[in-house]
Amino acid sequence: MSVERQGSTPDRDQTDQGYRFAALREALREGETLSVKLDGQDLLLCQYRERVYAFENRCPHQGRAMDGALIRRGQLVCPHHGARFDLETGAPSGPLARCALKAFEVRLIASDVLVDSQPKGVTDSVP
Ligand code: FES
């Protein structure tokens, strides 16, 4: 399933600390993925065991979108050649992908899924 936000509701576009509205929770299904576009960025939302994860929707193996990826035993499985990535970290397992998926923090507030604008491990501040 794919969702691209066309219009915008100001109170859902931005929240404190850089989190952006990505989808309504009801749009997600257990064990499935949902592709969304936020500020021109393609993301893949995944729901597994009632937790929601967000990754850049671009497989490090060949750079293809991972729409339709499967979730198996806590891993996201690319639909193209089967590369596997840990849902908690985005780390690859197996020989196909050597780089991790870019992972984003997710917050669930009421019925909304909010995604950080920066990937995990990246901050705006300069030391
Ligand atoms: S493009 Fe994802 S495994 Fe090849």
From TrEMBL:
- Per UniProt, residues of the Rieske domain are 20-115
One Pfam family in the UniProt entry: Rieske
Which InterPro entries does the record associate with it?
Rieske_2Fe-2S, Rieske_2Fe-2S_sf
PROSITE patterns given in the database record: RIESKE
* Superkingdom assignment: Bacteria
UniProtKB keywords: 2Fe-2S, Aromatic hydrocarbons catabolism, Iron, Iron-sulfur, Metal-binding
| CDD domains reported in the protein's UniProt record | Rieske
The GO terms this record gives for MF are: 2 iron, 2 sulfur cluster binding; metal ion binding
Query: Which Gene3D superfamilies does the UniProt entry name for this protein?
Result: Rieske [2Fe-2S] iron-sulphur domain
According to its UniProt record, which cofactors does this protein need? Answer: [2Fe-2S] cluster
Family, per the entry?
Answer: Belongs to the bacterial ring-hydroxylating dioxygenase ferredoxin component family.
Q: What is this protein called?
A: Rieske (2Fe-2S) protein
Q: Per the UniProt entry, what species is this protein from, by scientific name?
A: Pseudomonas gingeri
